[in-house]
Design goal:
Elements (H helix, E strand, L loop, with lengths): L19 E13 L3 E8 L2 E8 L5 H6 L5 E10 L14 E12 L16 H6 L1 H4 L3 H23 L3 E2 L16 E4 L7 E4 L4 H9 L4 E10 L10 E11 L3 H18 L5 E2 L5 E4 H8 L13 E2 L1 H4 L5 H8 L3 E7 L7 H13 L6 E6 L2 E3 L8 H7 L10 E7 L1 H18 L7 E2 L1 E5 L4 E3 L6 E3 L10 H7 L9 E6 L2 E8 L4 H10 L4 H14 L7 E4 L3 H9 L29 H6 L12
Parallel strand pairs: 3-5, 6-9, 11-18, 12-19
Antiparallel strand pairs: 1-2, 1-4, 2-3, 4-5, 7-8, 9-10, 10-24, 13-14, 14-17, 15-16, 15-17, 19-22, 20-21, 22-23, 23-24
């Protein structure tokens, strides 16, 4: 017999009756019935009830064993009586009568309960993450993560992609976020950077002649925490293909995602390939941002022309100053009380807006302060906009287009939630395409890349030389599911003259370009194939399938919101000898001059 176990704790069934077995695991729960002590023994695979009789010489040892101690028991499998069956457990028809009992490792009093769903707060959970990970929900989430990654690999290899690992220590790259820097011991004063993404390396692999590449890539960005973004590191399915169009990139990813979501969810409606494609400009107008939740049926409309020169002076005067009026429909609201509208108006004010006006239609007749200041002809025009009928309401936001659209997206979601319009048990995918190549930085008023600087502009060099920069579209795309951006991607620029011109428009000199991206630029001069790729985030895919609102719940060892590892005490100070070896000195910026 094996020294620790013949079976795992989720394996034994009624067919194993009278078999002598050995099990090892953690003490999940104990129940003392006087002459009998029942122990729920747990391992990675499940729970088996074991029972030890008071006549057993190891009874007192078992009685003293604390929760979460590790034990090994030997005993015989017995059927449970009808009244003690546990149909919630796969092993619930049997129990093991203990003959021998070994306490392998005793547990001290616990800082958090493993056999409970009680929330102990972020600090406690992350400081004792190894205990937190023992909990049933966390075990399921990490197993789900493993299944997602396994299905990704299976799907990519099936399409003849080859897995290649790119460097972790590389050069710093201005890709939008801050790098994590690593000092070099052998090159004093110089630093490596951890990659924000394998962007340049995967393009270089295409230039090297590898036709289809992928990896489960770790990426590192020194940025603030959000519910859907972990500070420090994250993982993505990074893939690149040669001699492809946008459609080829889409066709490679869509069946992989569809397969993952189909196999790992139950009773969900899932978008079937091909996923719909929405141009960026249309997306902003309809949904307010480029991450639309298509489960939400509400569509934004521009009603500026209806309010222009109207008697509703508040909007009319702002329109003359360059503002727009965005309308958000609210269907089937003829019976909603005044409190419903006041609640949403107050919410908008709490969010820093001036408020959210409205018109309530009841049998085609407009009600409310705005309706009272509009003529019949204008009110009839509202009944023709998308999503409005004779018993709908319309909420309005007025402001500069670039300032109000993002809030309109929030309001669209808020109103849909209040009316319970967002369908559950659905995963709706879409591609956002035709992104602008450039945008204006609102702080510096200078032109900058809006998305990925390595993208091919639509129209190529001719567009860069002849068109206004802000009108140039790029072969860039995002894939979105239920309002969550899963990935960005692009058909890459593969010609040095286009790269030089594209970066020149964004304010880079040839010298700066050669310094920052010299390796890639040089490689373009030696025969670069047309190529493109994408990089869906694994963490966000797992979040969606698990139904978890916070990314911390699906990462084994995440940082806290301050980018700290409380368990391993990182980041930590380095002693002076190590600093000297790295030619570094710590400056105390808090000291007064």
């Amino acid at each position: 017999m094996h020294i620790y176990r013949t079976h795992n704790c989720g394996e034994l069934r009624l067919k194993d009756k009278d078999r002598s077995v050995k099990l090892s695991g953690w003490v999940h729960r104990k129940r003392d019935h006087g002459n009998l002590l029942f122990v729920d023994l747990r391992d990675h695979y499940g729970i088996t009830q074991v029972v030890i009789d008071k006549k057993n010489k190891k009874f007192s040892l078992a009685e003293k064993t604390s929760s979460e101690s590790v034990i090994t028991i030997t005993g015989k499998v017995l059927p449970r009586s009808d009244e003690t069956l546990n149909k919630k457990l796969p092993t619930g028809e049997i129990e093991v009568s203990v003959e021998d009992y070994i306490n392998e490792s005793n547990a001290k009093p616990l800082p958090l309960e493993v056999n409970s769903d009680k929330d102990y707060g972020e600090d406690t959970r992350l400081r004792y993450r190894y205990l937190d990970l023992r909990r049933s929900k966390m075990q399921k989430n990490i197993l789900l993560r493993n299944q997602v990654i396994s299905l990704i690999r299976e799907g990519m290899i099936k399409q003849n992609f080859i897995e290649i690992q790119t460097p972790i220590l590389t050069a710093s790259s201005p890709e939008g976020a801050r790098d994590y820097l690593v000092p070099s011991r052998v090159h004093p004063g110089k630093f490596y950077a951890l990659p924000q993404a394998p962007q340049q390396f995967k393009q270089l692999l295409m230039i090297a002649g590898f036709d289809k590449y992928f990896q489960i890539a770790p990426c590192f960005r020194d940025e603030d925490s959000r519910a859907d973004r972990s500070p420090g590191e994250f993982y993505q399915l990074d893939y690149e293909m040669s001699f492809v169009t946008q459609e080829d990139i889409f066709n490679a990813l869509e069946p992989v995602l569809f397969n993952i979501f189909t196999k790992l969810t139950k009773n969900f409606s899932i978008s079937k390939p091909p996923f719909i494609k929405i141009p960026f400009d249309e997306c902003i107008k309809k949904y307010g941002n480029d991450k639309p939740d298509l489960r939400n049926p509400l569509i934004l409309s521009d009603t500026t022309e209806i309010f222009k020169d109207s008697s509703f002076k508040l909007f009319a005067e702002n329109i003359n100053k360059g503002s727009v009026v965005i309308a958000i429909p609210a269907p089937n609201t003829k019976d909603q009380p005044r409190a419903f509208f006041d609640k949403l108006n107050n919410w908008a004010k709490e969010e820093g807006q001036g408020g959210m006006g409205y018109i309530q239609f009841i049998n085609n007749e407009g009600k409310g302060p705005i309706a009272n200041n509009l003529d019949k002809e204008r009110l009839e025009k509202f009944l023709k906009i998308d999503g409005v009928d004779s018993n709908s309401s319309i909420f309005f936001l007025c402001g500069k287009f670039e300032e109000i659209t993002e809030f309109a997206a929030l309001a669209r979601t808020k109103i849909a939630n209040e009316l319970k319009l967002i369908k559950e048990n659905e995963f709706k995918f879409c591609w956002i395409v035709d992104y602008p190549m450039y945008q204006i930085n609102q702080e510096t008023n200078k032109i900058e890349f809006s998305h990925n600087p390595f993208s091919m502009p639509q129209g190529g060099l001719d567009a860069l030389e002849k068109e206004e920069p802000l009108k140039i579209k790029a072969y860039q795309y995002d894939i979105v599911c239920n309002g969550v951006e899963l990935s960005s991607g692009a058909i890459r620029n593969h010609k040095p003259e286009i790269m030089l011109k594209a970066f020149e428009i964004a304010g880079y000199s040839k010298k700066e370009l050669e310094k920052e991206f010299g390796g890639l630029l040089k490689a373009f001069n030696y025969g670069a194939p047309p190529h493109g790729g994408c990089a869906p985030g694994i963490d966000r895919i797992v979040m969606l399938i698990a139904g978890e609102p916070n990314i911390r719940e699906i990462i084994p060892f995440p940082f806290n919101q301050k980018a700290e590892d409380l368990m391993m005490n990182a980041p930590a100070e380095i002693d002076d000898e190590r600093l000297k070896e790295l030619s570094l000195k710590i400056l105390d910026l808090k000291k007064k001059d």
